[in-house]
Amino acid sequence: MKKRLALIMAAVLGISMAAGCGTATNSGRNADGKITLEVGNWPDATRPESLEKSENWKKKFEEQNPDIAIVPNTYGYEVKTFIAKAAAGQLPDLLQNLPFTEVKSVAKNGYAADITEAAKKAGIAEAINPDIVAMCKDENGKMYTVPRSAYMQGIMINKKLFEKAGLVNADGTVKVPETFDEMADFAVQIKEKTGVSGMTLPTTSNHGGWILLNIAWNYGVEFEKQGEDGKWKATFDTPEFHKALEWIYDLNWNKGVLPDNKVISAKDMQQLLGSDQTAMIFGNSDWCSSLAQKCGMKPENLAMSKMPAGPGGRYAQLGGSLFVFSPDLTEEQIDAAFKWIEFTGFGPQLNEETYRDNCEIYANEGNFVFPQELFSIWTNKDRAEKIKEIAAPYANVDMKDFANYNQEGITLRTEPPVCAQELYSVLDSVVQEILTNKNVDIAALSKKAQSDFQANHLDKMK
Amino acid sequence: MKALEAKKHKRSRSTRFRNNLSGWALILPSVLLLFLIVWRPVGMAFYYSLFRLQGMKAVEFVGLQNFKDVITDTAFLQTVFNTVKYVFWSLIIGMPIPFFCAVMINEMVVGKGFFKFALYLPVIVPTVATCLIWKLLYMDGEGGLINALLYFVGIGPADWLSNKTLTIPLIIVAATWQGFGSTLIMYLAALQSVDQNLYEAARIDGAGFWKRFWHILLPHMRGIILLMAIRQIIGVFQITEQPLVMTGGGPNGASMSLGLTNYFYAFQYGQFDKSMALGVVSFLFLIGLTFIYFKLDRKFSE
């Protein structure tokens, strides 16, 4: 009896395991015969207003498109989980906030659907800034993603601290630094008058390297170059790079304007800015939402400015976020996804109603509502005008505080084409060494970083 | 003759198997689970470490190239050295504390239950939460709790995690605080089996605590101490979450461990092939240690 029971148990377990291993193929339709579209980044219960808005949109969208069923999914892009999810085929059908840097690897690894045709049909190429459209394509010119928003790297300023330190113009706006030296001076004044760290640089999670790259560009540094033989060479160990590192060294060891804590990620840095513990950080308009939602920053307390000019020119990184489509979507699902994108206000035609909904909820949630787009990806001028009209009643920031966050006199650059994350991790270590070792030999450090990056990453590229 | 014997042997083996059938059936579920979540992934890691992967798909057989890439990384030697440093400090800091706590609790007359419970408590706190608490304690500048205390008694703030020589021992202190409860329970259990007659006899003969400790307790506990040491080496050799949360491997790689490098290969760079290769290297090393563990375990069980 006992024996038989054990056998039965074993059999049941075996069968259930075998069943778990099976995979279903995607027909793209549910039991009612409707086209299903699983939409990622769905708000969860912690944001009740956004959730209600999304539910309403879903209802309205399904009324307008009776053959489509929207399936909410709260998964949002995260570096750590994305590849595993993608490899397991568990990505939502439509995911937003994929960073521009990931386009090529996502395409190469087969984690995204080729949407070249569908994008053509939707008129993406004509409606969006061609530089940005180019960033959505792989080496063969195939399109795998659709741009959602773009940003330019710059300086984010805590107005309260600037006002306390007296860094104010005659018209009541805060002064913004135009050069790196001026930025350091401002930081010193803030430290002296308020006791708070004048500025903060990140050091971990590749954010340290990413910001260092943005700083060093302005000192005239080129990080990598492709030789005639097609091989990539690291080229950043130069006197210009040393100058950039000296600027950081000076901020910490001579001027003492950086926080004492040296283990800082971009998130920590945002937290410091939002809670009035630092006056300046390098950042971009894409961070506004998280500043408001996670760091408790009031929209009226933020000012922004473009990257300061350095001895090598004035450069800033162009970045942004994308929509990405799950690779196993059927053609009709891809069409449905484009319809949803259009409906939610991110297609070539502005959906005034959903845009207004967004403004209203953002305003209620204490999130940033700008009276105009800070950085538009659209070529259509009417669209910008219409957005101004819709946003005006909800706007909670004054564009005067963002007057200098524009593209005049600045060259936009994209991230290094190969091994960008690896480069950032090497540069993370450089920043850490500078900030924790008073007797650091900058020339030797820079030389080692370059040879490490060359040997460990560029030479081992596959 | 020989063939007949072999046949007989075979038959006896198969009957033996049939007699044990219910036993086999009972362990089958755990064997299946072990296969699914331990053996199969280990086997797959071996297999995939020989390929170039695109995402998680094998696209090209490259032999030992991934191993070569991982071992020739300019940070590899430092990382191995760091990992050994973690192990070293865990033996210095992490070994004596649970042992002495166990001996103390064992000697206690009142409050035994409370201390057992209180010291075990950190074990049930999630590792990441523990790391975040200790990160706050260690934070540089006046914001850190330890520095705030130092400030309070009039000593200036010191550098903690950003001090390259201190960072590994400090991480080990945090890890010890969290993990020593479970080792303590093992020691306590072993202490229960000390022959009380011996103890009483020694006490009557006038042996003090240290004499009893030295001549009765320590010889009795030698086996389990050695086993715990090996277990600790195996555990600490894989240290990943603590440096990940507390320092990110910094400053400038000073707290980078093999486990964390492995994690970065996979989840920061998406280079799963290198991650597999490094995993295999660590695995082989740990298998060696485990072998020693089993040898010792058998020796001391006898």
Short description:
The complex is a heterodimer of chains A (about 450) and B (about 300). Chain A is of the alpha/beta class and about 450 residues long. Chain A has helices at about 1-20, 50-65, 80-85, 105-110, 115-120, 125, 130-135, 160-165, 180-195, 205-215, 240-255, 265-275, 290-295, 330-345, 350-365, 380-390, 420-435, 440-460, and strands spanning about 35-40, 70, 95-100, 145-150, 155-160, 195-200, 225, 230-235, 280-285, 300-305, 315-325, 410-415.
Radius of gyration of chain B: 25 Å
Q: What would the average pLDDT of chain A be, to the nearest integer?
A: 88
- Low-confidence runs of at least 5 consecutive residues of chain A: 12-24
CATH classification class of the largest domain in chain B: Mainly Alpha
**Name of the CATH superfamily of the largest domain in chain A:** Periplasmic binding protein-like II
* Tally of DSSP β-strands of chain A: 12
**Per DSSP, what share of the residues of chain A sits in E-state strands of 2 or more residues?**
5-15%
Order of helices and strands of chain A: HEHEHEHHHHEEHHEHEEHHEHEEHHHEHH
Helix count of chain B equals 14
Span of the ends, CA to CA of chain B? 39 Å
Main beta sheet strand tally, sense and closure of chain A: 4 strands, mixed
Major sheet size, sense and barrel closure of chain B: 2 strands, antiparallel
Structural class category of chain A = alpha/beta
> Outline of chain A, from the CA principal axes?
globular
CATH topology of the largest domain in chain B: MetI-like fold
- One letter per element, helices H and strands E, the order of chain B comes to HHEEHHHHHHHHHHHH
Task: Return the domain count of chain A.
Answer: 2
